[in-house]
Amino acid sequence: MRHLKKGKKLNRGSAARIALIKSLATNLILYEKIKTTQAKAKFARPYVEKIITVGKNNTLANRRLLLQKLYLKKAVNKVFDVLSPRFKNNKGGYTRITKLGPRQGDGAEMAQIEFINLTPAPAPEKSKK
């Protein structure tokens, strides 16, 4: 029994699961939208959102932490330069999962995970005197 055991296994060993999550996160950051199975999208979502939250504070320690969590330095730079400033005013909910229906070959439920597009926060109105 798996009482009090957190997380999904996705029918893989630990090394393959870590490689899968790093690959999904790296590709999602680089392309901002990927098509994958619904289970993998749900598995990757919290991992990617934590990466964006860490990227909001641009320090050397955080940069090194993200280099451990992602495969490419290009992806780490994009987190700090593009994505974190875009979500600066948000406290979470950076991604959206859209269901696409079953895959033709094996019937696996497919989904698209993408970053939401935020418009900048409106400027505060001046009080009328």
Major sheet: order of its strands?
A: 1-3-2
CATH architecture of the domain at 33-115: Alpha-Beta Complex
Series of secondary-structure elements, N-terminal to C-terminal: HEHHHEE
CATH C-level category of the domain at 33-115: Alpha Beta
N-end to C-end Cα span: 68 Å
- What is the residue-averaged pLDDT? 92
Number of helices: 4
| Helical content band | 40-55%
Strand residue content: 15-25%
- Major sheet summary line: 3 strands, antiparallel
How big is the Rg?
A: 17 Å
Q: According to CATH, what is the topology of the domain at 33-115? A: 50s Ribosomal Protein L17, Chain: A
Coarse morphology: globular
SS-based structural class? alpha+beta
Superfamily at the CATH H level of the domain at 33-115? Ribosomal protein L17
Q: How many beta-strand elements?
A: 3
Uncertain spans:
none
Structure description:
The chain has 129 residues and is an alpha+beta fold. It has a domain at 33-115: Alpha-Beta Complex (50s Ribosomal Protein L17, Chain: A), CATH 3.90.1030. The protein has helices spanning 14-31, 38-55, 60-69, 73-86; strands at residues 33-37, 95-102, 109-115. The chain has a 3-stranded antiparallel β-sheet, with helices on one face. A hairpin with a 6-residue loop joins strand 2 (95-102) and strand 3. It is globular, with a radius of gyration of 17 Å.
